[in-house]
């Protein structure tokens, strides 16, 4: 599988998950994430697909360094991840806006964006560049960040509505796990991540990538 095919398959799984009856049933309920409703979380989960056509169409500045998927997350200030931060509030607001008027509205827009991406993404060169959140990246690296978002928030949504998290292709899970482990190693220390994965007798208290 290529990164593009992994992304498109992941997007298809997310589409099916958003169409489940439980998402509609609990739409206006609080989610498992503090300050988020199921609607807002659903909108946020859809954004890696909804926003991609505009990302592909945006002009890419050539005077900025290329960054990796790990860099993309690691350079984000930890303070921006706190629920009271301006960034966190803006992210929640964007999720609500993306949710629209309900699951039917959300899925209609999701299907339109996904159909476009299924046509355009496979035609792009391996070294195609994009700009995401002001950072210049190879498309493949950016797609990895989108898969991180989709897998992490699919689990959040599953917990919120009492469903089992969808199963994703091993290649997708491997890529997301590797990215999160590398971010964690930078935020904490490489040896802490190694110990957490290899030595249960040396437990590490905190290893979150975020």
Major beta sheet summary = 3 strands, mixed
Average per-residue pLDDT, rounded, comes to: 92
Structural class: mainly alpha
- Tally of domains: 1
- The CATH architecture assignment turns out to be Up-down Bundle
CATH topology descriptor: Four Helix Bundle (Hemerythrin (Met), subunit A)
In the CATH hierarchy, what is the superfamily?
dinb family like domain
Ends apart, CA distance between termini: 28 Å
How do the SSEs run, as a string of H and E? HHHHEHHHEEHHH
List the strand order in the largest sheet.
Answer: 1-3-2
Q: What does the overall shape look like?
A: globular
Verbal overview:
With 210 residues, the chain is mainly alpha-helical. It has a single domain, classed as Four Helix Bundle (Hemerythrin (Met), subunit A) (Up-down Bundle), CATH 1.20.120.450. Helices cover 61% and strands 5% of the residues. The protein has ten helices and three strands. Strands 1-3-2 form a three-stranded mixed beta sheet. The longest helix has 23 residues.
């Amino acid at each position: 599988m290529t990164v593009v095919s992994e992304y498109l398959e992941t997007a298809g799984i997310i589409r099916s998950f958003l169409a489940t009856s439980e998402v509609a049933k609990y739409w206006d309920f609080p989610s498992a994430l503090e300050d988020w409703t199921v609607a807002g979380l659903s909108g946020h989960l859809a954004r890696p697909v909804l926003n991609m056509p505009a990302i592909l169409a945006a002009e890419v500045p050539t005077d900025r360094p290329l960054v990796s998927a790990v860099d993309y997350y690691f350079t984000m200030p930890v303070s921006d991840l706190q629920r009271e931060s301006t960034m966190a509030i803006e992210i929640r607001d964007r999720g609500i806006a993306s949710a629209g008027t309900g699951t039917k509205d959300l899925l209609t827009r999701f299907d339109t964006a996904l159909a476009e991406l299924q046509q355009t993404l496979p035609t792009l060169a391996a070294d195609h560049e994009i700009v995401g959140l002001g950072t210049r990246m190879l498309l493949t690296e950016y797609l990895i960040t989108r898969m991180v978002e989709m897998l992490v928030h699919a689990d959040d949504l599953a917990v919120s509505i009492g469903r089992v998290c969808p199963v994703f292709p091993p290649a997708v899970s491997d890529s997301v796990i590797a990215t999160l482990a590398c971010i964690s190693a930078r935020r904490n220390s490489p040896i802490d991540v190694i110990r957490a994965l290899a030595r249960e007798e040396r437990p590490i208290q905190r290893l979150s990538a975020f």
